Amino acid sequence: MRNVFFGVLAIFLSACQSVEGVLIAEQPYSLKEISHAVAGISGKPREVSDNQREILSAYFGRKVGAAFDPNTAKERLYAHFYILGDRRPYDIRVQVIAERKTASGYSELGEDVNMSQKVADELKAKLVQSQDGTNVIDSFRPF
Q1: The pLDDT value given to residue 60
Q2: 115: helix, coil or strand?
Q3: Which of 22, 66, 75, 82 is the most buried (most CB within 10 A)?
Q4: Tell me: the pLDDT tens digits for 17-42?
Q5: Residue pLDDT, tens place only, 62-81
Q6: Is residue 67 part of a domain?
Q7: CATH code of the domain covering residue 52
Q8: What percentage of residues in the chain have a pLDDT greater than 90?
Q9: What Cα–Cα distance (Å) separates residue 103 from each residue in 15, 71, 106, 114?
Q10: Closest CA to 92 of 102, 101, 81
Q11: Counted domains in the chain
């Protein structure tokens, strides 16, 4: 009976885990379109995984338009984009991580949920904007 109780408890606790980041569900765009949209909002990525489904943005600050040097800033942020699923429609998880400068370098403070939501909203807008510029008839290539 005790083993059953711990088994049920373990299943319950694993189901209650919070998932980090903001999820943009069921996006019909290709991997290439999503990658271009990510680059459009965050600039050239620092890292891209081998399968092109995890992208780390360049470092950025909280204030838009302010001069920012990622090597000397007291605090810096970066976005981690996860493209989930094996085919379209893809889910995209956006997570913005904050780092604070210490004597030995930078230490991770954790996720900034508000900035994650802002970046996710920018990404959604950029994806819709990129789709508006396509012409289905002219871009169709039968051969």
Answers
A1: 93
A2: helix
A3: 22
A4: 456 899 999 999 999 999 999 999 98
A5: 887 778 888 899 999 999 99
A6: yes
A7: 3.30.530
A8: 63
A9: 39, 13, 8, 27
A10: 81
A11: 1
Mean pLDDT in residue range 38-57: 94
Place of tokens 């990525």: 45
- Transcribe 96-109 into DSSP letters: EEEEEEETTEEEEE
Lowest mean pLDDT among 86-90, 112-116, 124-128, 131-135: 131-135
For residue 43, give its domain range.
18-114
DSSP reduced 3-state for 120: helix
27 CB-near residues (< 8 Å, 6+ apart): 34, 88, 89, 90, 91, 92, 127
Does some domain include residue 119? no
As a whole number, the mean pLDDT across the chain is 84
Q: Cβ–Cβ contacts within 10 Å for residue 116, how many? A: 21
Are residues 34 and 83 in contact, defined by beta-carbon separation less than 8 angstroms? yes
Distance in angstroms (rounded) separating the CA atoms of residues 27 and 109: 30
Residue 121 domain-assigned (yes or no): no
User: Is 83 a member of any domain?
Assistant: yes
Provide the whole-model pTM. 0.77
Closest Cα partner for 45 from 79, 75, 95, 82?
79
Cα 19 to Cα 60, 76, 114, 119: the distances in Å are: 24, 23, 15, 17
